[in-house]
Specification:
Helix content: 40-55%
Number of helices: 15
Structural class: alpha/beta
Number of strands: 15
Shape: globular
CATH topology of the largest domain: Aspartate Aminotransferase, domain 2
CATH class of the largest domain: Alpha Beta
Order of helices and strands: HHHEHHEHEHEEEHEHEHEEHHHEEHEEEH
CATH architecture of the largest domain: 3-Layer(aba) Sandwich
Radius of gyration: 22 Å
Distance between the termini: 28 Å
CATH superfamily of the largest domain: Type I PLP-dependent aspartate aminotransferase-like (Major domain)
Length: 429
């Protein structure tokens, strides 16, 4: 079967499954009293509208002019879990806004340890975890701890922009190992990776699930990567912030869980902010089972990196221990949105290449068939849809845009209709 027909059949299969999942999700929503989800009835994500959301004092909704559909920065538009709201209010009622212990609130690390074990079978202890005020801080700390000036750091692009910033700003030498695209989607180019490793290479940066292409790397792929890491004695910084946002048929494996030897060479970044839509609270975790490496990280962070505030810590404990029903609901809605985007692009945007995300709520759209100097600028001007410019994600991102579909179905539909009309007037190469 030719690749084009194989891809076509795979996509049709995904769409059929998506339609059934969406019908089943809608039916279960109507029958929530019989399946024990009464509390989730307050989360009607279809009620979101541009008019309501435009009143939010958030960067996502205030950066662009009125009338723009902002599908750029990775924030969800959904209301957060009631359990998180209640935990914050309850904490406020204690009037306890003094300094928290250096290790965090009493249950903070324990909640994170429980989460990693229950979700992934990854066993950590208190000494393995360091709370920080955001994953970008973790990227910088990882680069500083695992490499020195003028040493090489491998970055697998296209990838989240701060990966490049963390490397270049602190005088490391970036080595770009671009992902490659085949009939099945985006892949790590293992041959190119091995060819680019030199005696000056110290660190490999991994993003899994991968932002922006949406890959969730299989255990086989991670084991293959681990062999290279161990053979060349590389350190690894693994950004796993989106690890709880995984769609049907896929499973997240923490890179550090591959083997004890890999764990000793890995710095993992994770947190609740993307999963539970609390990015503005600024909290995350650095994890490593290498005690000497952890001490080095904490030494670098001293006086530079702030610990997360008590409200962020309170929200995290509630999210990890009480937010799973909300997350289950959100994942069903996001998966239906993902498949709606895939079906729409396949049926209506014939010159746009797209592989549905396996994880995260981001769609990576290839517009390189259009003769556009900057696709995101063109669509902002002509369609009034704001998306991230692919070039910001490094080599291999040119000609792409990143679309955030974590909003209501009607807003996603409106944005795609605007994009269709605008691209209908764009020159094709």
């Amino acid at each position: 079967m030719p690749p084009s027909w194989q891809t076509y059949c795979i996509r049709l299969g995904r769409i059929a499954v998506a339609k059934f999942q969406f019908w089943f999700f809608e039916y279960n929503s109507c029958q929530s009293k019989t399946i024990g989800l009464e509390s989730l009835m307050s989360y009607n994500f279809d009620n979101l509208s541009i008019e309501k959301l435009a009143k939010k004092a958030s960067m996502k909704w205030q950066k662009y002019p009125k009338g723009t559909v902002p599908l750029w920065v990775a924030d969800m538009d959904y209301p957060i879990a009631d359990e998180i709201k209640k935990a914050i209010v309850d904490y406020i009622e204690t009037n306890n806004f003094g300094y928290a212990d250096y290790e965090g609130l009493p249950d903070l690390k324990e909640a994170a340890i429980e989460r990693m074990w229950e979700r992934y079978g990854w066993g950590l202890n208190h000494e393995h975890i360091f709370p920080i005020s955001g994953i970008v801080q973790g990227l910088v700390l990882g680069v500083l701890a695992a490499s020195s000036k003028n040493e090489e750091v491998i970055i697998q692009t296209p990838v989240y922009g701060p990966f490049m910033i963390a490397v270049e700003k602190y005088d490391r030498v970036p080595v770009y190992n671009q992902l490659v695209r085949d009939v099945d989607g985006w892949q790590i180019d293992f041959d190119a990776l091995k060819a680019q490793i030199s005696p000056a290479t110290r660190l490999l940066m991994l993003c899994n699930p991968h932002n922006p292409v949406g890959r969730v790397y299989s255990r086989y792929e991670l084991e293959k990567l681990a062999e290279i890491v161990l053979e060349h004695r590389l350190w690894v910084v693994s950004d796993e912030l989106h690890s709880d946002i995984i769609f049907s048929g896929y499973k997240h494996t923490p890179f550090a869980s591959i083997s004890p030897e890999v764990a000793q060479r890995t710095i993992t970044l994770f947190g609740p902010t993307k999963t539970f839509n609390i990015a503005g609270l600024k909290i995350g975790f650095i994890a490593t089972e290498n005690s000497a490496l952890m001490q080095h990280i904490q030494h670098i962070a001293l006086g530079i990196v702030n610990k997360p505030n008590v409200i962020a810590q309170t929200a995290t404990i509630a999210a990890y221990r009480e937010g799973q029903e909300w997350l289950n609901y959100s994942l069903k809605y996001l998966e239906a949105n993902r498949d709606f985007v895939a079906e729409y692009v396949f049926n209506n945007l014939k010159n746009v290449k797209h592989f549905p995300a396996e994880g995260s709520y981001l769609a990576w759209l290839d517009l390189s068939k259009y003769n556009l100097e900057n696709p995101s600028d063109y669509l902002l001007e002509q369609a009034k849809v704001a998306m991230n410019d692919g070039a910001w994600f490094g080599p291999g991102g040119e000609g792409h845009v990143r679309l955030n579909f974590a909003t209501s179905r009607s807003i996603v539909r409106d944005a795609l209709e605007r994009i269709r009309v605008a691209l209908g007037n764009a020159p094709v190469t």
